[in-house]
Amino acid sequence: MTMVIGVAHALTLVLLVVAAVMALARMAMGPSSLDRSIATDLLTAVTVAGTGLYVVISGSTTALPVLVVLSLIGFTGPVAIARLISFRSVQVRDLRRSTAGAGAASQTRGSLERAADAAQACATVGPEAEQTWDDAEDGEDLDADTEGRR
Q1: Where in the cell is it found (predicted)?
Q2: How far apart are CA 6 and CA 38, in angstroms?
Q3: What is the overall mean pLDDT for the chain?
Q4: From CA 99, how far away is CA 73, in angstroms rounded?
Q5: pTM listed for this prediction
């Protein structure tokens, strides 16, 4: 029975080392800060599991306070990063809204320019240009209609 437990401990240690190496690789490669944050959280979890494995193998309880501290760090770190990311997403949303407002103003300016082109076409061409004015009210593109009539 002790041999089976020894093999299980060794296999657990190997899997924890593989997980730690993969987490370190993700931290190094990135590409985003969120990837690095998740890798750091994974590395903290692997460290907690490794410390727990040490406690089980050695039978010593001296590492239990370390487990508690690592568990608290493992909890508060991702919560803080989630708050930071949500704060950034609010900033991005506000920036997009302010940019969208500027885009709407330029669209309105474009509509006024199209209406002015249609009015000019009506004044210079005559009654057949009334269709162009109706198209301008519908928001259709006037460039194709007015270019040939000028």
Answers
A1: Cell membrane
A2: 31
A3: 77
A4: 39
A5: 0.57
